[in-house]
């Protein structure tokens, strides 16, 4: 599941969500995507999270509603979905998700 904060940065989070949803449709991406009001990382906005049952969870920040962030989020969302444990290899992460990593949480 890819969750994007919709209240980040005066509407920029909502714009990011819409851009990701549109690109996911264009790519036939089946990863679930949802918006969430305030993910409490306001100083690092825009933010997005990856979660899955039995998988590592990630929180990314400092994202923009642009093609770079959209591509990066969809690429790692697919990686996360395909991984049995949710670990995202550092070497396979796009640059903006290497510098923008705010947290990695263990599975429940």
From TrEMBL:
Superkingdom per UniProt: Bacteria
InterPro entries associated with the record: DUF1636 (IPR012863)
Record's protein name: DUF1636 family protein
